[in-house]
Design a protein that fits this description.
- The relative contact order is 0.22.
- The protein has one domain (about 1-235): Rieske [2Fe-2S] iron-sulphur domain (Rieske Iron-sulfur Protein, 3-layer Sandwich).
- The two termini are about 30 Å apart.
- It is built from four helices and 18 strands.
- The model is unreliable at about 1-30 (pLDDT under 50).
- By secondary structure, it is mostly beta strands.
- The structure holds FE2/S2 (inorganic) cluster.
């Protein structure tokens, strides 16, 4: 995959180079490597109401789509506070800093739900990738509290920025950058940090996505304004987890 540089999205959806210093408080990598900013989207529930952090069930994986209307992401409220920043490394050797989630405990986190190994992802029919709660069991890892891709038994630790901790996957899951408007209790997605797999995803799953979104071009549309957020079990008919 090509090394990506820092980009900022203007209102038109056009990606242009921008200085990392222009994004206040969101400087993730010194040179902006592996960080892309997109139009900010409000996370809303199935009724179109803003997702409230206090109303999220702990350790239940939610699905929303960002930055494209066809790229699924997980939203997870973890059971413990996250205070540490985590330095992560891509398989190509680039390092970047993950700053945790949002909320008072920084424990509401979001990641691309496209597996960094071979792109397994949730779709309306089934999902071989899910979050296994702390007390849960998986063949992929010796304990729960991890995102597990059961296609080839990879595990990712959401407390460590979805770093790969077991299996074939080498890259962390890409992080979705969240912003929290505390005064209004609103959560926004605003960027992607890490080695996202969108290009390969749109190429490999072109027929399925074209079918589901009427055309491959429509599937690539960027999310505007808001993005619906539902539990994984409501999004897909079957969750397969080993
Ligand atoms: S596709 Fe996820 S582990 Fe292989």
């Amino acid at each position: 995959m090509q090394r990506r540089t820092f980009n900022k999205v203007l209102g038109s959806g056009l990606l242009v180079a921008a200085s990392p210093s222009l994004i206040k408080g969101l400087l993730f990598a010194n040179d902006g490597t592996l960080f892309a900013s997109y139009e900010r989207a409000l996370l809303v529930d199935e009724k179109g109401e803003p997702v409230r952090l206090g109303a999220l069930a702990t350790e239940v994986p939610y699905v929303f789509h960002y930055p494209h209307i066809a790229t699924p992401c997980f939203l997870i409220k973890l059971p413990e506070p996250l205070k540490q920043e985590v330095a992560l490394k891509s398989s190509s050797g680039e390092t970047y800093l993950w700053k945790g989630g949002v909320g008072k405990e920084k424990n509401v986190v979001a990641f691309s739900a496209i597996c960094s190994h071979a792109l397994t992802h949730p779709n309306p029919e089934d999902s071989f990738i899910t979050y296994v709660p702390k007390g849960g069991q998986t063949m992929a890892y010796d304990k729960g509290g991890v995102v597990v891709c059961s296609s080839h038994l990879s595990a990712f630790d959401p407390k460590q920025g979805a770093k790969s901790v077991a299996g074939e996957a080498k890259d962390p899951l890409a992080s979705i950058v969240l912003e929290y408007d505390e005064a209004n209790d609103k959560v926004y997605a605003s960027g992607v940090l890490g080695m996202e797999m969108f290009h390969q995803y749109f190429r490999i799953f072109r027929p399925q996505l074209a079918d589901r979104f009427q055309s491959a071009r429509k599937a690539r549309q960027l999310v505007k304004v808001s993005t619906a957020t539902v539990t994984l079990s409501a999004f897909t008919k079957e969750i397969i987890q080993y």
